Amino acid sequence: MKGFFITLEGPDGGGKTTQAKLLLEFLEEQGRPGLHTVEPGGTEIGRAIRALVLNPRWRQMASRTELLLMAADRAQHVAEVIRPALAAGQVVVCERYVDSSLAYQGYGLGEDLRLIDQANELAAGGLLPDLTIVLDVEPATALARTACRTQRDRIEGRGLEFQARVREGYQKLCAAFPERMHLISAEGDVKAVHRRIAELVASRIPGRG
Ligand code: TYD
User: Fold this and answer.
1) Is residue 209 part of a domain?
2) Does some domain include residue 151?
3) Which atom of ligand 1 is nearest to the CA of 97?
4) Residue 201 alpha carbon to ligand 1 centre in Å
5) How far does the centroid of ligand 1 lie from the alpha carbon of residue 208, in Å?
6) Ligand 1 geometric centre to CA of 78 (Å)
């Protein structure tokens, strides 16, 4: 059976984790149990990188350092988790991947998009998702969902204008890559959002065998 690579993208507080779990339940019902993984932090090395890159203490972190740390996390994740799972025929559901670097470090922080493509190429070696779902939500709604957390991480702490640029970035990416990337409204009912995602995945994922 051929593997299938799905990524979930969107703003902080957009509900990616909830939707990833519901999607995995759906896939299991369809007889295609999947692997749930995340960036940054999908490997042991990645969790060490995540702790470093999101620590609010490092206010002086340069945007290129941030980009390269995300890329280092991705390189390890692709080598250790994603490629082996796809080679074994698994469905991989990954929260965040190359498009997060484009949306956050590119559209959000203003780093050159070509440099980000290069960093992504270095990390992922050309491995792109078969399908990318971008959860689209008003930045204020998303940020309010993260407000209950005890402490915002370094990137969540950047505020509304940053989040608005990230959202716009995702919208532009979806317009540029309509085959692979799909924008799904994440406002409102969790189950309704899940149904939209499940419908899309069911229409794209190849049958068994
Ligand atoms: P995530 O764990 O998805 O945070 P949350 O669960 O709060 O949505 O991602 C952590 C942060 O890392 C998030 O603010 C987005 C950021 N990020 C980047 O800026 N670039 C990247 O390439 C990746 C993978 C994540």
Assistant:
1) no
2) yes
3) 24
4) 23
5) 32
6) 17
Print the domain residue range for 45. 4-204
Instruction: Write out pLDDT tens, residues 123-142.
Output: 999 999 999 999 999 988 88
Distance CA 47, CA 93 (A): 18
- Torsion sign over Cα 87, 95, 64, 102: positive
Burial 164-202 (b: 16+ CB within 10 A, else e): bbbbebbbebbeeeeebbbbbebeeeeeebbeebbebbe
Separation between Cα atoms, residue 197 and residue 120, nearest integer Å: 25
If one residue of 7, 12, 115 were mutated to test the ligand 1 pocket, choosing by the most ligand atoms within 8 A of its CB, it would be: 12
Six token digits for residue 208: 């068994």
CB of 7 closer than 6 A to ligand 1?
no
Cα–Cα distances in angstroms (integers) from residue 117 to residues 15, 41, 203, in the given order: 26, 21, 29
**What CATH code is carried by the domain that includes residue 153?**
3.40.50.300
How far is it, in rounded angstroms, from Cα 110 to Cα 190? Answer: 32
5 lines ligand 1 (CB under 6 A): no
- The answer to whether residue 13 sits within a structural domain is yes
CA 150 remoteness from chain centre:
23
CA of 39 to the centre of ligand 1 (A): 7
The reported pLDDT for the residue numbered 152 is 83
Positions of the chain with pLDDT under 50: 209
Domain assignment present for residue 97? The answer is yes
Q: How many distinct structural domains can be found in the chain?
A: 1
